[in-house]
Amino acid sequence: MAVGIWKDVILILGFVLVINANEEKTEPGGYMRKEFSISKPLTGNNIFQSWEVGGSTFISNDHIRLTSDNPSQSGYIWSRMPVFVRDWEIHLHFSVHGSNSRLFGDGFAFWYSAQRATDGNVFGSPDHFRGLGIFFDTYANQNGEHSHEHPYISVQVNNGSMSYDHDKDGTHTELGGCTSHFRGVEDADTVVAIRYLGSKKRLTIQFDVEGENIWSDCLDEEGVVLPTGLFLGMSAQTGDLSDNHDIISMKFYELDDEDDDKDPSEYTLLEPNASGSQPDRDHVDDKPISTRRQTVMNWFIVFLVILAIGSLVGYFVYQKHQRDSLKRFY
């Protein structure tokens, strides 16, 4: 009987270990490249030697603020050197927060792109980019209902021919994405892990919102082709709505490449593409959404029109009746 009890205990322990293995993510099996990483203290480690900032971006000792909680701002930070690593993983620690609890925007973007350090209308960077864009979108621009909630992390692989449709929140050309309630998280380390295995053409994204080393899957796509020689960047933009978009740190890990015996220069000529991306579609404006107040007003207007027509008809009938009565009198 004692043997049976111990078997049950072992099974329970094994089950717990399996659960923990699924929840926890270990550090990448490579080494960190400091020239592509950002760590504290930000103002004391010669960050400007490796990174270029522009727009509204402000660097303090413990964070990089791409935009503050003010309207009409746009800021970016870009690596000065291109990345010639084929297999890599990035842990991006960030914070999006502001004074408004209901309306805020618009979000920020992570880039692995050929275009760098240029203003644009896609979260502060140019449209028709060549490479990878990951968008941390906090505001739903589309009037129609989404199949997902915001905040939303979406991914686009672009060879320069596609446009990011802000009015549709990028759904026309996205590779995939997930809902992640990363906005307004206090006293926690919100981290996203972006892993690209060029040797396997695989892109995966996980996030840990509460900083408890419990990771949620966001995207796992095969058939993703990205060239080497592109630049790393983060950018953000505010319009009428605003937020603080802060980068706390970024760790870039070079992973082991199974095909490292090949000539690295041939990977710079690859054309960015992803077999699982949504086909590019024409922009179609959303139909206006009728609110309850608008519906009541519309019915009230219809009632007034019917009442006016009925009154006119009644007036003419009454006038005709009066004329007919006068004729009979004379």
Mean pLDDT: 83
General form: elongated
CATH architecture of the largest domain: Sandwich
Number of strands: 17
H and E string: HEHEEEEEEEEEEEEEEEEH
Assign the structural class, choosing from mainly alpha, mainly beta, alpha/beta, alpha+beta, or little secondary structure: alpha+beta
CATH topology of the largest domain, by name, is Jelly Rolls
Compute the number of helices.
Answer: 3
Spans of at least 5 consecutive residues whose pLDDT stays below 50 are 5-23, 285-291
Radius of gyration of CA atoms, rounded to a whole number = 29 Å
Helix content: 10-25%
Summarize the structure.
By secondary structure, this protein is of the alpha+beta class.
Describe the structure.
This protein has 330 residues and is α+β, with helices and mostly antiparallel strands. It has two domains: 28-274, Jelly Rolls (Sandwich), CATH 2.60.120.200; 294-330. The chain is 19% helix and 31% strand. It contains three helices and 17 strands. The strands form three sheets. Strands 1, 3, 4, 6, 11, 12, 13 and 16 form an eight-stranded antiparallel β-sheet that branches. The chain has a seven-stranded antiparallel β-sheet with strand order 2-5-15-7-8-9-10. The longest helix is centred in the last third of the chain and has 38 residues, at 292-329. The chain is elongated, with a radius of gyration of 29 Å. Mean pLDDT is 83; it is low at 5-23 and 285-291.
